[in-house]
Amino acid sequence: xxxxxxxxxxxxxxxxxxxxxxxxxxxxxxxxxxxxxxxxxxxxxxxxxxxxxxxxxxxxxxxxxxxxxxxxxxxxxxxxxxxxxxxxxxxxxxxxxxxxxxxxxxxxxxxxxxxxxxxxxxxxxxxxxxxxxxxxxxxxxxxxxxxxxxxxxxxxxxxxxxxxxxxxxxxxxxxxxxxxxxxxxxxxxxxxxxxxxxxxxxxxxxxxxxxxxxxxxxxxxxxxxxxxxxxxxxxxxxxxxxxxxxxxxxxxxxxxxxxxxxx
Length: 263
Known about the structure:
By secondary structure, the protein is an all-alpha fold. Helices cover about 75% and strands about 0% of the residues. Helix 1 packs across helix 7, helix 2 crosses helix 7 and helix 8 packs parallel to helix 12. About 30% of the residues are buried.
């Protein structure tokens, strides 16, 4: 059983990796499209000169390069692909395969991370060439913990968007839900600003949502900002469990709806 799973995983990953590297130019543009933290970094570094935020310009520079890295490794687009499959009927042949269709999307996302990696490394090197004062070494243990938390953040982000994607069984515009969600994600996840600059009351409320654990939590962990590791991991697993249960229920109900449409 395990060897069969490993073989299937290898085939899927290698297939989608070969597909992804055919679009190197697009991958470079996708990597650049995640550079919003760099734009905001300059604004916050300038604002930090007054010393009103408790973070120095170097702290902001390190935070935003960390946020850039987290976003590069957690970007998800499954809702647009799944919506197209349902609307165009391309989901039907995948339902005949002895494999849950979601694993095709998981393999595509994981393979894309490896194909994107050279561009990420190049942009990080360019960043520290331009801002050498921001260069630091977090330590091996912190780096390993960072990648573990990023993997959990990606899983949570994927699970949330895939759950929204299942609305495609009932509507042709499931992606509209993601577009609304993205507005909240943009402002509350830590892309626009670290949570340290939020008013304490607002920050406490935001910490009960899944948003800060998708960007801010792993980024703050990497740069050494104070975080509650136990609470963060518990919140990520809690939200992940909630969306997983919701996802599996919607999948079963959606398949009935999909079959009812004669697909």
